[in-house]
């Protein structure tokens, strides 16, 4: 996780999923991952039905490889230049190929709600640490967007990593239209 969660943040997540372990921070990261798995299942069918042109991808800036990254800094994050020094380049390239509305590499979790409010996607693919991902799923639900979340393989505030094959699988996820429709 990028930061130690406060008791209030832990309680918010626990209330959201209906748990009664108020203030228990001992297994918070695992709890957030469990939330992501549960929410991915809940949103899977609706997410798959959304055309890719109505989906966006949210990536954390911590995927960037400092010293090698060619991304351009913007007010809320970074615009990937697909220099391929980190997983963001491959993810953005695949999302463009599939016709996604946009890929946003955000400086922090607070920018998630802003991007969702501006873009109004019907579906979101999110990549983050477990804690930020759980909060991002909550923000998507509040906005009415179906979401699929892929947790980072290696957390931290810089040089993190994600399984690009797993993200690609989520990006490609869709329902086939019924025959004759």
Q: Could you give the topology of this structure?
A:
Elements lengths: L6 H11 L10 H22 L5 E6 L11 E2 L3 E3 L7 H12 L3 E5 L4 H9 L3 E6 L1 H14 L2 E6 L12 H9 L9
Q: Give the structural class.
A: alpha/beta
Low-confidence stretches: none
State the total count of DSSP E strands.
Answer: 6
CATH topology: Rossmann fold
Protein described:
The chain is of the alpha/beta class and 181 residues long. It has one domain: 3-Layer(aba) Sandwich (Rossmann fold), CATH 3.40.50. It contains 6 helices and 6 strands. It has helices at 7-17, 28-49, 87-98, 111-119, 130-143, 164-172; strands spanning 55-60, 72-73, 77-79, 102-106, 123-128, 146-151. Strands 2-3-4-1-5-6 form a 6-stranded mixed sheet, sandwiched between helices. Strand 2 (72-73) and strand 3 form a beta hairpin. Helix 2 runs parallel beside helix 5 (130-143), helix 3 packs parallel to helix 6 (164-172) and helix 4 (111-119) runs parallel beside helix 5 (130-143). The model has no long low-confidence stretch (mean pLDDT 86).
């Amino acid at each position: 996780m990028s930061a130690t969660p406060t008791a209030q943040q832990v309680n918010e997540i626990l209330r959201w999923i209906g748990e009664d372990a108020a203030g228990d921070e001992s297994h918070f990261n695992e709890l957030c991952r469990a939330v992501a798995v549960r929410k991915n299942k809940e949103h899977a069918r609706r997410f798959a039905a959304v055309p890719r042109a109505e989906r966006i991808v949210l990536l954390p800036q911590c995927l960037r490889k400092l010293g090698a990254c060619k991304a351009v800094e913007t007010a809320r994050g970074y615009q990937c230049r697909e220099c391929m020094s980190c997983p963001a380049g491959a993810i953005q390239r695949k999302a463009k190929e599939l016709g996604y509305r946009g890929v946003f590499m955000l400086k922090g979790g607070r920018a998630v709600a802003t991007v969702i409010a501006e873009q109004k996607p019907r579906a979101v693919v999110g990549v983050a640490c477990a804690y930020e991902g759980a909060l991002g799923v909550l923000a998507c639900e509040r906005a009415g967007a179906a979401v699929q979340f892929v947790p980072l393989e290696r957390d931290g505030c810089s040089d993190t990593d994600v399984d690009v094959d797993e993200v690609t699988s989520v990006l490609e996820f869709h329902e086939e239209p019924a025959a004759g429709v």
